[in-house]
Amino acid sequence: MGKLALVGKITHVPSIYLSELDGPRKGTRQDAIDGHREIARRCREAGVDTLVVFDTHWLVNAAYHLNCAPHFKGEYTSNELPHFIANLPFEFPGNPALGQILARACNEACVETLAHHATTLDPEYGTLVPMRYMNADQGFKAISVSAMCMAHYLNDSARLGWAMRRAVEEHYEGTVAFLASGSLSHRFAQNGQAPDYAFKVWSPLLEQMDHAVLQLWQRGDWKTFCEMLPEYASKGHGEGFMHDTAMMLGALGWSEYEGRAEIITPYFGASGTGQVNALFPVQPVSGRAIPAAQASAGVMPSAGRL
To answer: What's the number of domains the chain is made of?
Structure first.
């Protein structure tokens, strides 16, 4: 029925917005903006109607949540970095029907999920920054998914991604892109040192870890990466504990995935964190059912399982 046409890991650093504004940072993130626009171009080329964003800035303490209001419009100021993102205007359509389909499939896969269509809740900047450049013409509908998950298992996030893909393919009449909005390493520069790290990663160790991960992605060694993800997320200070990445890999097929990452915006440092825009070819997956939740497992399922 429906189709998952595109999957990406994308950056949302606030300095992308600063890059638009007059001042010393103007133009400094044009490569990231161009990467977002290229991803949008490919989405249009593939006939995508809805962008589903796994947003590592939407913090939740219980269940998974989808913001699938019919329309989003307002002005946003970041409570985290109000000197970076202030009074950012946004407007784009939502997709309540798809949101309900996705939530139902996740619950059927034993991953507690709530879809919010009658809501005044605005998206967070993990969604709003990419939408500014990918969806300036409001040509795509959008759904935001909570991916800063404070009391959740990574294996549940992987299963959520898998369930969402199956929901699109089996119950939706349309074409969708999944975008994991979050960094690689995410150790911010210490207070008072942020200007010195505006274009750097916090430490050589974290930078080398990120490059090693990108090499795994580019050569398609998903078995190794899936096994190391929980420890990488922890020791690499992964943004939102990298639940967005687990969701993305669940949708792709987890360690059985055989695709190779295409780097759209080369790796860069921002305020101490490691960032990239990358795309992953969507390949056929097996039709097996998702097993029940592993109630006591704090790590990902073993390689090859979802």
So the answer is: 1
Per residue in 122-150, pLDDT (tens digit) is: 999 999 999 999 999 999 999 999 999 99
Q: Give me 288's structure tokens.
A: 């097996």
* Under 8 Å between Cβ of 129 and 112: no
* Structural domain that includes position 30: 3-280
Largest CA distance in the chain: 54
Backbone angles phi, psi at 170, to 5 degrees: -105, -20
Determine, yes or no, domain membership for 285.
Answer: no
Q: What does the alpha-carbon distance between residue 208 and residue 200 come to, in Å, rounded to a whole number?
A: 12
**What global pTM score does this model have?**
0.94
Rounded to whole angstroms, the Cα distance separating 210 from 248 reads 17
Is 299 inside any structural domain? no
Rounded-to-integer distance, Cα 4 and Cα 248, Å: 12
Per-residue pLDDT reduced to its tens digit, 229-240: 999 999 999 999
Token pair, residue 273, equals: 């964190």
> 3-class SS at 28?
coil
